[in-house]
Amino acid sequence: MSEKSPLFLAHVKQESDGQWIPHPLEDNLHGVAALAESFAAAFGAGDWARLAGLWHDLGKYRGAFQRYIRGASGYEAHIETAPGKVDHSTAGALYAMERMKGLGRILAYLIAGHHAGLPDWQSAEAPVSSLANRLQQADLLTDTLAAALPADILDAPLPTSNPGGERAHALWIRLLFSCLVDADFLDTEQFMNPDKTAQRGRYPTLAELGPRFETYMAALSAKANDTSVNRMRAQVLERCRKAAEQSPGLFSLTVPTGGGKTLASMAFALGHARQHGKRRILYVIPYTSIIEQTADVFREVFGEDAVLEHHSNFEGEQETPRSRLACENWDAPLIVTTSVQFFESLFANRTSRTRKLHNIVDSVVILDEAQLLPPNFLTPILGAMRELSRYYGVSFVLCTATQPDLSSRHSLDFSLKGLDDVREIVGDAAAVHELYDGLRRVQLTFPPDLLTPVTWQALAAELETHPRVLCIVDRRDDARLLHSLLPSATVHLSGLMCGQHRSDVIADIKRRLRNTNVPLRVVSTQLVEAGVDLDFPVVYRALAGLDSIAQAAGRCNREGRCFNLGQVVVFVPPTQPPAGHLRQACQAGRQVLQRRPADPLAPALFTEYFQILYWQKGTEQLDSQGIVPLLKNNQRLEFSFRTAAERFQLIPETQAPVIVRYGNNEWLLNQLAHSDQLERKLLRQLQRYVVNIPRRVHQRLLAEGAIAERQPGVYVQITPQLYDPVVGLRVEQAIHYGSDDLMI
Question: What is the Cα gyration radius of the chain?
Fold first, then answer.
């Protein structure tokens, strides 16, 4: 920058000695451009990202902004969505349109949205914030160009790479947006908080994780007993190692529950990443309730420094400096996250959710319990997976004991464009069946009449005849009622218990299971069916989808210790599953079982089961929120990013979190009460004590003073009796459950 040029500020900060330090705007723009270019180079769009970085904050050259920043905190000024903030993003969008005409809309989306989120082109719900409306504000560009802008920024070369081709343009734009906002965040952080920047990237590389994994697996093998189960697990592991050499793309790993999928899939991912130069591994888990367990397994394997665990119950609806600081950008080599985080981020428009997306490029993504992909969003999810695999170097592994049929299906009344080139890691259908036979450890029985329910009292009496038994139901209130009918020593598990409470109870169950002389009866919701390694001789399961029944069977005779086969008993409960997916899955399961198959858990039956499940929903219900039309390619580049993000909610916003009082967490609650700002570490610690309840119940408890808001959006239990040390949050007296309130 010339010494005679006026000093235009991007940010300012105050040092401990009171001195104000400026962040020159020209330095900021070049810094963001260089970072964004390096990120987007991974998918051949570095020239587009560089130009977005150079122009993203042109509006800060306006006199109005320069006057504003000299009277405000630089970092707070960076978020322009708060009342009174100066618009400094529209000018760059307008300039992109002036320089690039029609293709300028690509950069206009990125630049106009890099604080408030990717906008809709047109929006009936929020017309003022639509991109079309913002591009009408020509005076913002006129005011900006009145300043002495550097020529190398204004006259920067235009992109030469193909902006779309056969790719889905909306996903390509969101990935570019991710590059821009992550670069913007990191460059700002480098100026505002260099100590924090210095802490980034301190992870071992994937190359370093490989030897740690081999050392762990060698020790595990050395102490493993020579049993048929362990021999089959070793066989699965070896097949995963060999398959890792295959070319990148779409894979399935179909192994019966208890076959060692978690570590075997990681062996594949590490080998595949090494063979093909993949940058990171993402392990995606369906339930928050089990993510801690899987992350703990990987920490034991790789060390505390290797695993980034990302899930949150505290993400706010509005962009704030705190929400941007609290989010992750997935720059670690091994990330363990939830299906909600992964898939909602793919369709998000907010900066805090999208800045991680570019780090998915050239990765291995393991989708654990793939049968739990949400059917109502199946079409957009499969579309995104196809795009990421074909154009962005992502290898997916669909990992489950009950592999869903996701292939394309077309008929007169049903159409699904699915995944048609999936390679099974363990081999062909015969190899999958061989594994199933080798790991067969249970015998399944179900009543002759699949329509007539048993009473809770009769079921409780039957459960009492078994000294060690697990009973799984679909509804929280069913679990609590059945538990109340059994002896007082019976254990209860449900989603009305916080994560730490569930972990403590599961650890106690495992301890008691190791002592074969101790009676143990457990009543649980389906939260134990994915990733919770329990081993009971007898398991009862309320009639459900065939995949859920198979998952329940995976908690029975898991290690093959029973003299004979373990016993899995399916019963018809007095209540129906909650309306929606669980009820539809139950109906599909009933339809398959009514034909009395010789082996109800045979792998071939799951293809039929999932076809029935998807077909009965119909084509429209596989994209129930109409996401695909909002993001469909069109010559005018008119997309509805904001609306798509609002509609793509895997967990409907009918639930709200409460931090409960459990164990010794009083000191954490005291920290929360006396903190001016929420630190990420404190949020992470508090997540272990969160229970989600229906919003209407949440509002009632707030009105009654049973809970209170300690920080914006963070609610804490006040009434001591509200949380029971056995069954969790006790709000049943006033809850009239809705259809979506009863799961897990």
Answer: 27
Could you tell me which CATH number the domain at 206-312+321-403+410-437 has? 3.40.50.300
Rounded distance, CA 677 to CA 118, Å? 27
The answer to whether residues 171 and 61 touch, using CB atoms and an 8 Å cutoff, is no
- Examine the pLDDT at 613 and tell me if it is beyond 50: yes
Average pLDDT rounded to a whole number, residues 265-284: 97
Tell me which fold the domain 440-618 belongs to: Rossmann fold (3.40.50)
In the chain, CATH 3.40.50.300 sits at: 206-312+321-403+410-437, 440-618
Give the separation between CA 539 and CA 537, rounded to whole angstroms.
Answer: 7
Q: Single out the residue of 470, 531, 521, 635 nearest to residue 121, CA to CA.
A: 635
CA angle 43, 108, 346 (to 5 degrees): 45
Task: Decide if 425 contacts 268 (C-beta within 8 A).
Answer: yes
Give the pLDDT of residue 416: 85
- Could you give the angle at the alpha carbon of 582 between the alpha carbons of 379 and 294, nearest 5°? 80
Residue by residue, DSSP assigns 161-204 as: S-S-TTS-HHHHHHHHHHHHHHHHHHHHHHHH-HHHHHHTT-S-
Residue owning tokens 């990148």? 248
* Whether the Cβ atoms of residue 137 and residue 90 lie closer than 8 Å to each other: yes
Whether residue 512 has pLDDT greater than 50: yes
- Long-range interactions of 63-71: CB distance < 8 A, separation 24+: 63/143, 63/146, 63/147, 64/143, 66/8, 66/9, 69/9, 69/11, 69/12, 70/9, 70/12
